[in-house]
Every structure is written in structure tokens, then in C-alpha cells.
Design brief:
Number of helices of chain A: 4
Strand content of chain A: under 5%
Shape of chain A: elongated
Largest sheet of chain B: 2 strands, antiparallel
Strand order of the largest sheet of chain B: 1-2
Strand content of chain B: under 5%
Structural class of chain B: mainly alpha
Helix content of chain A: over 70%
Number of helices of chain B: 38
Shape of chain B: elongated
Radius of gyration of chain A: 21 Å
Order of helices and strands of chain A: HHHH
CATH architecture of chain A: Orthogonal Bundle
Largest interface: A-B, 86 and 114 residues
Number of strands of chain A: 0
Distance between the termini of chain B: 79 Å
Number of domains of chain A: 1
CATH topology of chain A: Helix Hairpins
Number of strands of chain B: 4
CATH class of chain A: Mainly Alpha
Oligomer: heterodimer
Largest sheet of chain A: none
Chain lengths: ~120, ~950
């Protein structure tokens, strides 16, 4: 089971990283959302995987899950929402100020030129 | 209340408190600002009075408060003779400078800014001299660098003022950092940062293997601050400051801070050969160089600047001699230099003020235009030259005597009195130039206005200082001996040596040296034109500013090049550097790790449902990346992934997380959908294959790295610290939901930080969206025109019906949060969803008309509730945010528990509701506005 969860974390991270490296703002925000899922689950697994354990104190329970990572992740989820919201609005603001949604504020023409000059420098 | 228990920090802090007052007073009228500054200085002085007698009784007053006890840091102040002397100099000369500046500043200059800076600087200086804790001393030390930067650059419109200020800040600030390092080492050697302990450990420090390092580091601080060669060059450039600033900084304060440190640490660091060579050498070189250069400066303030450098060299040299009598002479000269140099700077300012020039080739024959000022200047300049019956003469005689004592007959050591005499010759020559060139020497050349005496009150500070020069010169035993002997006692940390401040010691070698210096000095002056020509022709002009700028420029260019390697203005590049570094760091960690990657914890068995859902997440994540060009599709996929993640939390015993993730998911997707409306619906295809290959490789390696890391942790057993929380949750926090109790009780302070961040994000978004106008797209992704009927009736009816129910759920989840899954965060999100669905279904106008709550106020009330809960605990003398709980019994409801943490959780709830709704509604308004814009176009 642990391997599966680790794989899920890994794939979410990989997709997130790939999207974060894109040149447009919207995929970057989506990438960060995916990355924050991955990070949250990763932090959560620091308390190890527990199936069917009690999360609430009760006289009948014999063992409990680790509440500390859960408390950390709970706030992390909310903060991640705040961050996502801030970034997407920043993207809107950038679109309105710069007239395009490129992460460096490059227009389509400028972007083409940048690619060409980089290719030249590469040669 | 005994004032002697807390007056010392007040002396230093009152000027800081007074600074904004002085700035505000300038709004009333200009003179009020000067009055405020003067009054603040007087109040500081008033707080010194009750303790003023203590140093004379041989007592050292120490007032100390624990600050960071774990690091041995105290907030500690000390008043002994040395501190008293400097405090008096700083406050009294400060008072005179304030009076002078009130007349000096022109109506164009902002008085408020000037006096605010001056007071802050004064406070920093007082902090240095009154500090008992060395780290605290360095903090004030750096504060003087910062505030003097503000003072020197006061005339911000002038290029040379900005350059001079930057240079002073760079040099003295860097020196301060070196001093910090030195002080930390000193503290490590002694085991305490308190001066009392450090001063008692002189022998131990001098024997220590790191003594030389400590000495060099501290001297770097001293020499940069006190403008000793080779760091002297900032001082002449600092002359771009208004003259009252120069008069203050370069007579009694700023540059004397370095000297103060020499006096302070004299019993600890002096007496070794290294001290003699470093301190004596730098002092000697600076003294001769400064005196020589001063003669060739045609600018009055330039002459005074180099003369200051020379006199600072003289004092440093005296400390370098390491004898007790030399320390007496040094401290005596500190007083004398402060008085005559402050008055001379003020005279220079008066001349500048009245003539519009400070060039001694133009300003001549001032005696008949301003006789009063002329007399004052002549006395002060004579004191500077060391003419008998003036204070400068006495300390200079002592200096000559010490220079002679330092010789032991060998040729090398005979160089000392010879060099000292050469320095004194130039000192006489430039002092004579100050008098003769300015006040005699024919008529003024090419002045734009006719000079006359300055306002009466502008001369009063100079009058007082010059009277002091005379008084100390004539009756030293009465006027200066008592304070001098207590200052010396404090500096030496022993009884002061017997010294006599007599005017007449008989015919002896020091007197001979004085005569020689005066005779040859006069000769040098009257042959000055020949000397000027020779100087201009034969000596290369080394402009330290050019050198400094070259070095600075070099550093900036080099660092710029290095940053450009990593950051070429492209976010993608910068991000990949960060990610590559992270992957490499983890890889390095793996390689360093000796035990196997996986631990031996028993793994859980695989069940088919989890396997299937995980496969779904994996496929969805990959699809999201592959299909990201179709933005709407990829957004839906992200939503799916988020929902399955929340199912995962259910599976692995985390109900709180599942609830949070679920509700956050809803608002996130709604938010992104709203935003996507204004962004292009497609991402253009990329044609840079290399970059895509690189990014795929990077993301796959990042994924594998994280996967292995997660697996390495999950396969190991561990000893959690959570047992404490589980055990104390019910008895200590009064709740059975441990996660919630951690959030609102155990780690309440963290949660407070989190909701502040959320509130700030909400307000930041509000600010960004204000006045933002984006054109709404006419058609959707498939070219269909957007509908003009945005509110479907079925949805409207349903959401209106559901609204009370949803709020009820939120209240329920909130109330049970302490004991069962739920709490402020989750309830807040549910309530936010309830509100947002109203906006979505019924439109902004309809909803705003019915829900008349300003979300800013909701956020404010929430934060206040959270903070007040914490403060109430403090008022009951518990630590911030300590919670308590009790049980109540109500009819019908039965017995239930009420915890003060609930109030805190209510704050969390309100902030979450406020911030979330604010964000989404502001974004919604944006689309609303653009819809309206379009409709207007339509009709």
C-alpha cells in the first residue's frame, strides 16, 4: 500500500513540476495546485499510513492516528487555497497590465524573438 | 518607584521617541520642530541628573533586564565615568547644535526631517556609550551608521551628498559588521557579553589564541568609524552634509564612537605589541597624513575634515602608547577636540551661510565684516593649534610628553617624537591658514553677497564652546579635572594615575616641541604658495572616491554577472534552477546515507479500491500535464484529483482533513473557473523541443525523488511526539478531537499566524482587483456566444432553499469541532460555500442587496476575536493564548462543555468566511462589471 501512495505522490509532483515550468500563467497555477496536493499528502504520510485508527479520543480506542501531521496539513490546505487565489488574481492583473499571460510578460512576438536568440546563442 | 532603577535606557530611548514628535511638530511650524528637539534633549538630560553623582562616588550604575537568557543576552545599561563624560558631550553639544541648526537651515529645508534624524542619531550614540551588553552596543553602533547616512544625505537632491552618505554607510557599516564578529568572539572567550565581565577578563583575553583575530576585528570597526588610515576617506566626503551635522558628527559623536571603543576596551586589549603597532601605527600615520593634507584644502570644511582626521589619529596614537598617562591625555583631548572642533565647524557654517562660499581663496578679510565671529574663530583655531592658555595646548603638551616617554633611545623610537612634531607643525600651519586666509589676507574675491554678522542666537553656541576652550585652558583643575579623572578611572578600570593639568611645567622638552611646532608652522604657512605649487606638481592625486567607486562598481558587476548566469529574466529558468538544486540536494542526501533506503516497518496490505482510485489519480495527473493546452479540461481534472485526495484522507483515518480538502476543493475550482473566464482558453503549442525534453526529465526526476523520500519515511518506524497531545487533549484542552485542540489550543499561536496570512491574501487580492478592468470574451471555447441569462431559475430556487440548511450545517460543524471532526476552518469553508452559491445562483446585485455584510469587517472582527482571546489570557497572567474550559448545564440541552478556545475558533471561522467570500465575490464583480460593459455595447 505504501508503494502505491508513494507513487501517487511522485506522479502528482512530477505533473505539478512540469506544469509549473510552463510559460503561461494558468498552467503554472494549476501546477502549483497539484504540487500542493502532493506536498500535503507527503506531509500527511509523515505520520505513516493508518487504516481504521481512531482520530477522536474515546475510552474504547486502543490506538490513535498521529494528529500532529493532520493539524499541520489542515492549515496547509487552507493556506494553499489562499496562495492559489492570490496567484490567479496576480495572473489576471498581469494579463490586464501586460496584455498577455506569459509568465515573463512577453508578447507573442517578443517570445518568438527570445526563442530565436536563445537558439542562436546555443549554436 | 526609584528612578535609578530604569533611567539609563530612557536616556537613550527618549530621543528615538522624540524623533517622530519633532517631525510632526514641523507641521505646526518650523521653529516648533527645533523646540521639540531641544526639549527632548533636555528631558534626556533630566533623566541623567539623578545618577550624575554616582560616578564621582566611584560607583558604576548598572541596569539590566533579561532579554534572551539562553544566548546570554541582556538588555543592559551602564553608567560609569567614561559613559557619563560621553553622555554629557553628546547631549550638551547636541543641544548647541540644535540651537545652531534652527538658524542655519534655510526655509527650503525640511526642519522636521532634520531634527527627527538628528534625534535618532543622538539616541543611537547614547545607546553606544551607555551599553553594558556588547551585542546591544553593536546594535546601537550600526544604528549610528544608518542614522548618519540619513543625516549626511539630508540634501537628497545633491549628488555629492548621496554619494558621500553611501560611502560613509558602506565603510562604517562594514566596519560595524567586523566589530560584531569581534565582539561575539570576545563574548565566547569570556563567556559573557556583559562589559563588567569582559573588563575583568583582560589577562585571559590577551593570553587567548584568538586574541589577534579579536583585536583586528574590533579595530576594523574602530578605524572605520573613527576615520583612521586607510579608511579615512569617507570623512571628507561626508562634508556634503549640512554644517550642523558635520559639527555634531565630527566633533563629539560619530567619529568619537570608535575612540570611545578604544577607551572602553583599553584595559582588555591594550598593552600588547600587536596593539602598539596596529593602534599606534594607524594613529601616527593618520595624524601626520591628515595634518599635511588639511593645509592643502581650499575648502574650509575640507580643511576641518582633514584636521579632524589628524586629531583622531592623535587620540588613537595616544591609546596606542598603552600607558595610563597616555590614556589620560587621550581622554582629555577627546573633550578638547569636541569643543574646539564643534565651534570651528559652526564658524565655517556661519561663513558659508553669510558669504555663499567656503573657498578660502575667495573668502578673505572677514574681520571687518564679522568681528565677533572672527574673534571666536581665532580663539578656537588657536586652541586647535595648541596655543598656550587654551585647552588644546594642555592636551598637546601631555601628548608630546607621552611621545617622548615612548622612546627608549633607539633610532626607531626617536622617530616617534620627530613625526609627532611634524604633525604638530602642519597643525599650526593649517590653523593659521584658517585664521589668516579667512579673516585677514586682503579683501574677499568674487563673493556674490556682502557678508555680515549672523543672527545673534546662531553665535551663542559658538560663544559657549569658545568660552569652554578658554576656561579649560586657564583653569583646568577646576573645570575639567573632576570629570576627567572619573572618566579615566572608568576607562582604565583602576584608580587614575596622578596627573596635573598645569599651564606651566617649567622649561622642558614638550614645551620646546611646542615652540618648534609653532615657529616652523608659521614659516610653513607663510611659504604656503610655494608649497602648494610643489604639492600640485609633484604629488600624484589619489582620489579615494574614484578608487572606492571602482571597487564598488567591480563588486556590483561581478555579482550581477553571477546572478545573470542563473537568472536571465526568465521565470522558467529561475524555477528550474531551484528545482534542479532541490533534486540534487536530496540526491546528495541519499548518497551520504549509509543504511538501506527502505526501513523494515510492516507495510499495509493492498486493497483493490485504493488501488483503483490511486490508478485513477495517477492517470488523471498525467493527463492534466499532457492536456494542459485545453485549460478547462485540465482544470476539471485537477478538481477530480483533489476530490480523490480527500477520499484518501477518509481512508487513512483523517476525517478533519477530508472535510477541509473537500470544501477547499469546491472554492478553489469555482475560483479558477471564474478566473479562467478572463484568460485565454487555450495555451499555445510550444515549439521548443529541447526545453520540453528538459522539463520532462526534470519533472520525472523530481517525482522519483519525492516518491523515494516518501517511501523511505513510510517504511520506517518512528517515535512520534503526538502522545503528549493525545494524552493532554481531553484533560488539558477539554476536547476529544485532538487535531482541533492542537489547532486552537496547543499550537494556537501558529493558527493565529495562518489566519493572518489568509486575511492578508484576501486583502491583497482585493487591492489587486480594485480598478482592474478586463474585457470579457464574447464567445466560449467552441465559438458559442455566452448566454445573457446567467441565473437559471431551478438553481436559484434550490440554493435559496438550501441556504439556511447549509448555514445550519456550518454551525453544527463549528460547534462540534472541539470533540468531533469539524472546527473553525471547516465550518468557515462550508459557510463560505453557502454564501458563494447564493452569489453564483442569484447574481451579485441580488445577493448584495440581501447580505449587507462588509467582508473586510468580518475579517477584522475575526482577527480581533482571536487576538483578544489571547490577550485575555495574558491579562489573567497566563501566557498568550492559554485556554481554559468548563462545563455548563442548561435545561433541555443538558451538560455541555464550553472552552475559551471556542472564541479563538470563532475568530478562525470568521476570517476564513471573510477572506474566502471576499476573494470570490471580488472576482465575481470583475466578471459582473465586464458583462455590464458588454451589455451596454449591445444595446
Amino acid at each position: 500500500m505504501e508503494w502505491i501512495i508513494a507513487l501517487v505522490i511522485g506522479v502528482m509532483t512530477a505533473s505539478g513540476v512540469y506544469l509549473v515550468l510552463r510559460a503561461r500563467t494558468f498552467p503554472v497555477v494549476l501546477g502549483l495546485t497539484l504540487l500542493s496536493y502532493a506536498v500535503n499528502v507527503f506531509l500527511f504520510t509523515m505520520g505513516r499510513l493508518q487504516v481504521g485508527q481512531a482520530a477522536i479520543i474515546s475510552p474504547n480506542a486502543t490506538a490513535y492516528t498521529d494528529p500532529l501531521p493532520q493539524a499541520l496539513v489542515l492549515t496547509a490546505i487552507v493556506i494553499a487555497f489562499g496562495m492559489t487565489a492570490f496567484l490567479i488574481v496576480l495572473a489576471l492583473k498581469a494579463r490586464s497590465e501586460l496584455g498577455n499571460d506569459h509568465v515573463d510578460g512577453l508578447s507573442y512576438v517578443a517570445e518568438e524573438q527570445a526563442v530565436k536568440s536563445r537558439q542562436k546563442a546555443g549554436n | 518607584m526609584n528612578l535609578l532603577e530604569f533611567n539609563l535606557p530612557l536616556i537613550a530611548l527618549i530621543p528615538f521617541l522624540g524623533a517622530p514628535l519633532a517631525a510632526l511638530a514641523a507641521n505646526i511650524n518650523r521653529v516648533a520642530s527645533a523646540w521639540t528637539a531641544g526639549l527632548v534633549t533636555l528631558i534626556s538630560l533630566l533623566f541623567l541628573l539623578p545618577a550624575i553623582h554616582l560616578p564621582f562616588a566611584g560607583e558604576t550604575l548598572i541596569q539590566s533586564w533579561s532579554w534572551l537568557p539562553a544566548l546570554g543576552l541582556d538588555f543592559a545599561f551602564r553608567l560609569d565615568g567614561l559613559a557619563l563624560l560621553f553622555t554629557l558631550l553628546i547631549l550638551l553639544i547636541g543641544l548647541l547644535v540644535i540651537l545652531y541648526a534652527r538658524y542655519y537651515l534655510s526655509p527650503k529645508d525640511s526642519m522636521g526631517r532634520f531634527f527627527a534624524y538628528l534625534l535618532m542619531f543622538m539616541g543611537s550614540m547614547l545607546g553606544i556609550v551607555l551599553s553594558e551588553n556588547l551585542i546591544q552596543l553593536v546594535v546601537f553602533w550600526e544604528l549610528t551608521s544608518l542614522t548618519s547616512f540619513l543625516l549626511i544625505s539630508y540634501w537628497q537632491h545633491q549628488q555629492d551628498a548621496r554619494d558621500g552618505a553611501r560611502m560613509a554607510l558602506a565603510i562604517t557599516g562594514a566596519g560595524g559588521l567586523a566589530m560584531l564578529a569581534g565582539v561575539i568572539m570576545l563574548g565566547n572567550i569570556v563567556g559573557s557579553y556583559n562589559l563588567t565581565d569582559v573588563l575583568a577578563a583582560g589577562e585571559q583575553i590577551r593570553q587567548h589564541e584568538h586574541y589577534l583575530t579579536v583585536l583586528v576585528l574590533i579595530l576594523l570597526g574602530v578605524f572605520t568609524k573613527s576615520a583612521q588610515f586607510p579608511f579615512h576617506f569617507w570623512l571628507p566626503h561626508a562634508m556634503a552634509a549640512p554644517t550642523p551635522v558635520s559639527a555634531y558628527l565630527h566633533s563629539a559623536t560619530m567619529v568619537k564612537a570608535g575612540i570611545f571603543m578604544l577607551a572602553r576596551l583599553f584595559p582588555v586589549l591594550s598593552g600588547t605589541e600587536a596593539w602598539g603597532w596596529l593602534v599606534g601605527g594607524a594613529g601616527m600615520f593618520t595624524m601626520v597624513l591628515g595634518a599635511y593634507t588639511a593645509l592643502f584644502k581650499h575648502d574650509l570644511k575640507g580643511l576641518l575634515a582633514y584636521s579632524t582626521i589628524s586629531h583622531l589619529g592623535l587620540i588613537t596614537l595616544l591609546f596606542g602608547f598603552s600607558t595610563q598617562l597616555a590614556a589620560v591625555a587621550a581622554i582629555f583631548h577627546i573633550i578638547n577636540h569636541a569643543t574646539f572642533k564643534a565651534s570651528l565647524f559652526m564658524v565655517a557654517g556661519i561663513i558659508d551661510h553669510e558669504c555663499g562660499s567656503r573657498d578660502m581663496r575667495m573668502v578673505n578679510g572677514m574681520l571687518k565684516y564679522m568681528p565677533h565671529t572672527a574673534v571666536l574663530a581665532m580663539i578656537a583655531a588657536s586652541a586647535m593649534a595648541g596655543v598656550p592658555l587654551l585647552n588644546g595646548f594642555l592636551s598637546k603638551e601631555m601628548f608630546f610628553e607621552q611621545a617622548l616617554t615612548a622612546t627608549d633611545g633607539s633610532l626607531m623610537t626617536w622617530a616617534i617624537p620627530v613625526l609627532v612634531t611634524i604633525g604638530a607643525i602642519f597643525s599650526v600651519a593649517y590653523s593659521l591658514r584658517f585664521i589668516h586666509d579667512v579673516f585677514f589676507n586682503g579683501e574677499p574675491v568674487g563673493l556674490t553677497k556682502t557678508p555680515h554678522e549672523p543672527p545673534r542666537f546662531m553665535k551663542i553656541p559658538v560663544d559657549i564652546l569658545v568660552l569652554l576652550c578658554l576656561g579649560v585652558g586657564i583653569a583646568p583643575m577646576i573645570l575639567v579635572a573632576p570629570i576627567l579623572s572619573v572618566a579615566v578611572a572608568a576607562s582604565l578600570q583602576s584608580a587614575p594615575p596622578t596627573f596635573s593639568l598645569a599651564i606651566w611645567h617649567g622649561f622642558n622638552l614638550p614645551l620646546m616641541m611646542s615652540f618648534i611646532a609653532m615657529g616652523i608652522g608659521v614659516l610653513v604657512y607663510f611659504n604656503r604658495y610655494k608649497l602648494f605649487r610643489w604639492h600640485d606638481q609633484n604629488l600624484p592625486r589619489i582620489d579615494a572616491r574614484i578608487l572606492f567607486n571602482m571597487v564598488l562598481h567591480g563588486i556590483l558587476v561581478t555579482t550581477g554577472k553571477i546572478s545573470r548566469v542563473f537568472d536571465r529574466g526568465s521565470l522558467q529558468n529561475a524555477t528550474s534552477w531551484v528545482l534542479v538544486t532541490a533534486v540534487l540536494a536530496v540526491l546528495y542526501g541519499y548518497l551520504q546515507f549509509n543504511s538501506p533506503l527502505l526501513g523494515d516497518r510492516a507495510l499495509l496490505p493492498i486493497d483493490w479500491l485504493t488501488l483503483a482510485l490511486s490508478a485513477f489519480v495517477v492517470i488523471a495527473s498525467v493527463l492534466c500535464a499532457v492536456l494542459h493546452h485545453q485549460r478547462l479540461v485540465s482544470l476539471i481534472i485537477v478538481g477530480v484529483v483533489g476530490l480523490i485526495v480527500s477520499l484518501g484522507f477518509v481512508k487513512f483515518s483523517a476525517p478533519d482533513l477530508a472535510l477541509t480538502q473537500l470544501s477547499v476543493e469546491v472554492v478553489t475550482i469555482v475560483l479558477l473557473l471564474l478566473a479562467l473566464f478572463f484568460l485565454p482558453q487555450h495555451t499555445p503549442q510550444e515549439r521548443n523541443a529541447t526545453r520540453m525534453t528538459r522539463d520532462v526529465a526534470l519533472s520525472v526526476s523530481a517525482g522519483i525523488t519525492v516518491m523515494l523520500l516518501a517511501m523511505a519515511v513510510m517504511s520506517r518506524d518512528y517515535a512520534p511526539i503526538s502522545d503528549f497531545f493525545i494524552q493532554n487533549s481531553k484533560p488539558g484542552g477539554g476536547g476529544t478531537n485532538v487535531v482541533n485542540v492542537i489547532l486552537v489550543d496547543f499550537r494556537g499561536f501558529d493558527t493565529l499566524g495562518e489566519i493572518v496570512v489568509l486575511a492578508l491574501a484576501g486583502l491583497g487580492i482585493f487591492a489587486m482587483l480594485k480598478n482592474l478592468r478586463l474585457p470579457a470574451p464574447m464567445r466560449d471555447i467552441q465559438g458559442r456566444e455566452w448566454s445573457h441569462d446567467p441565473h437559471p431559475p431551478i438553481m436559484q430556487t434550490l440554493t435559496r432553499l438550501l441556504f439556511p440548511l447549509m448555514l445550519l450545517v456550518a454551525v453544527f460543524v463549528f460547534l462540534r469541532g472541539h470533540n468531533l471532526p469539524g472546527g473553525g476552518f471547516i465550518a468557515g469553508l462550508i459557510a463560505a460555500v453557502a454564501l458563494i452559491s447564493q452569489y453564483l445562483a442569484n447574481g451579485i446585485d441580488w445577493t448584495n442587496a440581501r447580505i449587507k455584510v462588509n467582508m473586510h469587517i468580518v475579517i477584522a472582527i475575526g482577527l480581533t476575536a482571536a487576538v483578544v482571546t489571547g490577550i485575555v489570557a495574558m491579562l489573567l497572567s497566563y501566557p498568550f493564548l492559554t485556554s481554559t474550559f468548563t462545563y455548563l448545564k442548561w435545561p433541555l440541552v443538558g451538560k455541555f462543555e464550553i472552552a475559551s478556545a471556542m472564541a479563538f475558533d470563532l475568530g478562525v471561522f470568521l476570517v476564513v468566511v471573510g477572506a474566502t467570500v471576499l476573494i470570490l465575490v471580488e472576482l465575481g464583480k470583475l466578471s459582473h462589471a465586464s458583462h455590464q460593459m458588454r451589455q451596454q455595447e449591445h444595446y
